TrEMBL record:
TM spans (from-to): 6-30, 37-58, 89-113, 125-145, 151-168, 180-201, 221-244, 320-337, 343-360, 372-392, 398-416
Keywords from the UniProt entry: Cell membrane, Membrane, Transmembrane, Transmembrane helix
Identification of the protein by name: APC family permease
Location(s) in or outside the cell: Cell membrane
Length: 431
């Protein structure tokens, strides 16, 4: 095997690193608030939808070997019309929301080290400092954190494994019984609002050009990574709900995992999980900001964003990086975790519905079972429908931010085409 090509375990590490980023630290408390004792089931529902969607990604990645990933798949299936352009912009906006979630989690976990009277301001200072600092690192050298990424992933998996190993012995089965679960609609909604904790598997598609024997390696890597994370999340949720009352988890919602560790790991466990969260969210922020700036570059190359974003300085898409960081600063500081999670999960569910349908349309080229991808399309649409219905009933203000996000993607695409008449073209795998 060529030394410069990625093998099975390297690709799996990309997927696990992308999924076990800041998501689980940020959304666990929110999931428990919605699903209550059924939080493990909520995570399992979200994981199963992600697992079905990995089939489409595995088939498309091995057929259209490209660093463009999702953008390439949508362009191949639907052409370069307003629909595809809007979806690509929605993907970019959804990643900005993900960045905001990571920054918010960084601020929440970092604030616990400050006196309670200072925590509100400390949180927002840490959010802003993390975004500005990581942006600076990307301007200078993203490799500073990148070199330590494998150690950070290993450390957070070690801490999460220790959390499960020590905590599972003290789980009270009564706190996981069906009579502690929320209603079925709230359970599904709880699974969908934390769906963005799984979305990182999408990053594996962007490695296709760098993978040794992608037709064999990528499918196995996709399934292995998603199954591992699905089991990990269910065990974490079960341990949390089984050892700490729902009221206490909700009270510590934004740093729930650290609070859940304290009963059986003590104050040291609380601090260890908080430190793991800080490292994890910082590394996820770095990797996602690096990738999102390049996503804006790829979309600009296809003509769906202004060509200024296609320019590189110091071999970096500086304009895309700065615009992405600026929008992240606004979203992370102006919206709460619930709003951010609703926006992010809705955006990715819509994108994944489109990717599933893309594989359904291209099944002859991808040699796929089209009915699996049709099932994935229906599951994603049904999931986002349930999420939005539950949001409209319980937090209608969050529904409007989703409508604005989707509407913004369409408005930018339509307005940009009409104003500039810029030519839209498909990217080749070599671009």
């Amino acid at each position: 095997m060529a030394q410069d090509k990625m093998g099975f375990w390297s690709v799996v590490a990309v997927g696990i690193g992308g999924m076990v980023g800041g998501g689980i630290f940020a959304v666990l408390g929110l999931s428990v608030q919605l699903a209550q004792g059924g939080a493990p089931v909520a995570f399992a529902i979200a994981g199963l939808i992600a697992l079905i969607t990995t089939y489409a990604y595995a088939q498309l990645s091995t057929t259209f070997v490209s660093r463009g990933g999702t953008v390439t798949f949508l362009n191949k299936a639907f052409g370069t019309g307003v629909f595809t352009g809007s979806l690509n912009l929605l993907l970019w906006l959804s990643y900005i929301v993900m960045l905001s979630l990571y920054a918010s989690a960084f601020g929440s976990y970092g604030a616990v080290f400050f006196p309670e009277s200072m925590q509100f301001w400390a949180k927002h200072l840490l959010i802003s400092g993390a975004i500005v600092g990581i942006t600076g690192l990307n301007l200078l050298s993203a490799e500073i954190i990148g070199r330590a990424e494998s150690w950070i992933v290993a450390f957070k998996l070690l801490i999460l494994g220790l959390f499960i190993a020590l905590g599972i012995r003290g789980v009270d089965p009564a706190q996981l019984q069906p009579d502690t679960w929320a209603s079925p609609l709230a359970m599904v909604s709880g699974g969908m609002i934390i769906f963005l904790a799984f979305e990182g598997f999408e990053l594996m598609a962007n490695t296709a050009e760098d993978v040794h024997q992608p037709d064999r390696t990528l499918p196995r890597a996709f399934y292995a990574a998603v199954l591992f994370v699905l089991v990990l999340y269910v065990l974490i949720a079960g341990t949390t709900v089984g050892t700490l009352t729902t009221d206490k988890i909700v009270e510590a919602k934004e740093y729930a995992l650290a609070a859940a560790a304290e009963p059986f790991m003590g104050q040291l466990g609380f601090k260890l999980v908080a430190i793991a969260a800080l490292l994890s969210t910082a590394s996820a922020l770095n990797a996602t900001l690096y990738g999102t700036a390049r996503l804006s570059f790829i979309i600009a190359q296809s003509g769906e964003l202004p060509d200024v974003l296609e320019k590189k300085i110091w071999n970096k898409p500086i304009e895309g990086l700065l615009i992405t960081s600026g929008l992240t600063l606004l979203v992370a500081n102006l919206f709460n975790v619930s709003s951010i999670s609703t926006m992010g999960s809705s955006g990715f569910l819509l994108i994944f519905a489109a990717v599933n349908y893309a594989n359904f349309r291209l099944y002859r080229q991808t040699h796929s079972n089209r009915w699996i991808s049709l099932l994935g399309t229906i599951a994603c649409i049904a999931a986002v429908t349930v999420l939005l219905q539950q949001t409209a009933r319980t937090q209608p203000q969050n529904l409007w931010v989703v409508v604005v996000m989707v509407g913004l993607a369409v408005a930018i695409e339509v307005g940009y085409r009409r104003l500039t008449k810029r030519h839209i073209h498909l990217r080749s795998p070599q671009d």
